[in-house]
Amino acid sequence: MVNVTSVVGLPERALLEGSPAAMGCDALVVVTPSPVAAHVEALGAEIQGAIAGAAKLDAALGGKCAPVVLAVQGVPGGRLVVAPMSALQEETDDVRSVAEAAAAAMTRAVAAGARRPLLFVRAPADPRFARAVEVATLAVLGTQWAALEARESEHAPSPAEAVAVLGLSEARARELAAIEVGRALCRDITAGDPERMAPRRVAELCEAAFARTGVGVKVERNVEDYPLLSAVARASRVVERHKPCVVRLDYRPKGEIKRTVLLAGKGVTYDTGGADLKTDGHMAGMSRDKGGAGAVAGVVRAAAALGLEGVRVVGILGLVRNSVGEESFVSDEVIRSRAGVRVRIGNTDAEGRLVLADLLAVARELATAGAVDPVVFSVATLTGHVYRAHGPYVGALSNGAGRKEIARLAEVGEQWAEPFEHVRPRREDYALIAPRTPAEDVVSANRLASVNTPRGHQFPFAFMDVASGMKGSALPFTHLDIGGVVCEGADWQFGRPTGTPVTSFIGYLKGGASEA
């Protein structure tokens, strides 16, 4: 299992006062708006002077630039790593700048030889940056994750042993470390190669990750009760290790349960496109198509690590490989969903919405079977269109009852460097998936890829709403398409998984932005 770099919170004056915990570090990492020298008064005149002197020699330090390493006597380890941001005065600036600068600075500090860096962060006194120190801490921790296969083969670089953060309370440091445990599990699942993270090996990882956490883990290897998911998996069943499964994770807090959050995660461990085979090199990186399942598992794991009170969190992971072969499901088939809705198959590369429709039907069943104040979310790397439409933002859609929930989640996401773009489903979305003959109740997709279809990431919401039996229900339902944010730089093949939106969900579960 992953070992998360430990984080220690220290009073902001710890360095000035010569605290052993601060002086025992081996680098001071400074992340501030530019000009840096104007924001480091709390570090003392000597450090402020050293930065000002360096800026006279290197004009780049007067504005945003790559982190630089300075030799400064009196700072921990004699290393001062400075990561200037822009002035952060533009209306469009947000806390992602802090996360990016902190990650770059930590990477540079470790490359310089630091193993116990001390982090100092400054940001404008603006609500947009209210969580700057915590966001920077999570960004720093995230840089120290290495892929599961690299760790298991003992080829992973040595991570930092610990990170100390000035101005962070010890209690808050423990909470951030708990969130990082969930994000690390999310990354392990998302980044795992198609064999290391084949469906049932993801299930095994979940069983290990949730052992002794109090979270209930149920692995369903017979998936006949999930007809759409089973159809996606049909060609994979001829290979034992590729067979599908559904994993249910159930976190029940101690004490009274005041609400229930049900999360359905798409876990397509490899997506060939099926009979609508991906061509022209578009198959590379399709092992990351399980990022939704990774995110859901990460949320539940973080909730358990934090011991969240008052909220039950149920994660449902649909783990399946969309293979191509003699048994492939094909366009024009009509298959009844778990909810009993007759689905006419369109493009078989639109498999994720089929998997989610059956999982959402389960969530609806659980919600209507006595769950306390239930809400439902689906999380998936569902479309390429979401990146074309929104770039590096989570694409969010909800039914009428879910708009209040997505508004709260989006508010949290803004503060935690995981911003959302929220759009409404429209009549055109339901028109596109409407039945064309008496043989079906709904059509899964047209013949085109999502990127070539108007409203290509919006109309799948309409399909899932209908095929899951959710439509017309008063149950709040929100869908999050993370296709554009699952990996850094939208590089599905080589980009580091981001862990988005685990942190936002934890803030949401705790009660919103003010309580995140």
UniProtKB/TrEMBL annotation:
Pfam families: Peptidase_M17
Sorted UniProt keywords: Aminopeptidase, Hydrolase, Manganese, Protease
Keyword Protease recorded: yes
One Gene Ontology term, aspect cellular component: cytoplasm
InterPro entries the record matches: Leucine_aapep/pepB (IPR011356), Peptidase_M17_C (IPR000819)
Domain Cytosol aminopeptidase: 347-354
UniProt GO MF annotations: manganese ion binding; metalloaminopeptidase activity
Sequence similarity: Belongs to the peptidase M17 family.
Protein name: Cytosol aminopeptidase PepA
Species the sequence originates in: Chondromyces apiculatus DSM 436
